[in-house]
Write a structure and sequence with these properties.
The chain contains six helices and no strands. By secondary structure, the chain is mostly helical.
Length: 136
């Protein structure tokens, strides 16, 4: 298992990795909704590729998995973020009034944009509690 430190480069890498993951996850959920709305083989292939990519990226983020396991507040925030993304994908393709769709999209989009910053902030605050050791 890889342990990061509080080094600026490691924190930037963690933030970049979580940003990529949430972007691919959002793309996956959107492509699933699009493929269900107007099915075609190409759209399902794109959805499967994005699903595999997001699973692989999440499996590489050891720090995020440890934080989800050990920090109850962060676990709730992360699961809420992942659960809210499909709430945006569904209205875009299934004729929900545009005011509701745009409001949900804005709220969830802002949450997805700040998720990497919250992740790095929690990582900094709880580094010793998460890993049980300090940098030399």
């Amino acid at each position: 298992m890889k342990y990061c430190s509080l080094d600026k480069h490691d924190k930037f890498s963690l933030s970049l990795g979580t940003s990529k993951f949430i972007g691919i996850y959002c793309g996956f959920v959107g492509s699933i909704a699009f493929a269900i709305h107007t099915p075609s083989v190409e759209r399902w292939i794109i959805a499967v590729v994005l699903a595999v990519s997001s699973l692989l990226m999440f499996s590489l983020e050891n720090e995020v998995k440890l934080m989800v396991k050990r920090l109850v507040g962060y676990r709730f925030y992360t699961l809420t973020t992942f659960a809210l993304v499909p709430l945006v994908a569904v209205p875009w393709f299934f004729e929900v009034p545009s005011g509701i769709t745009m409001t949900l999209t804005l709220l969830v989009g802002i949450n997805c944009l700040i998720w990497p910053f919250v992740t790095v902030s929690e990582y900094e605050k709880n580094y010793t509690a998460i890993f049980g050791l300090m940098d030399a």
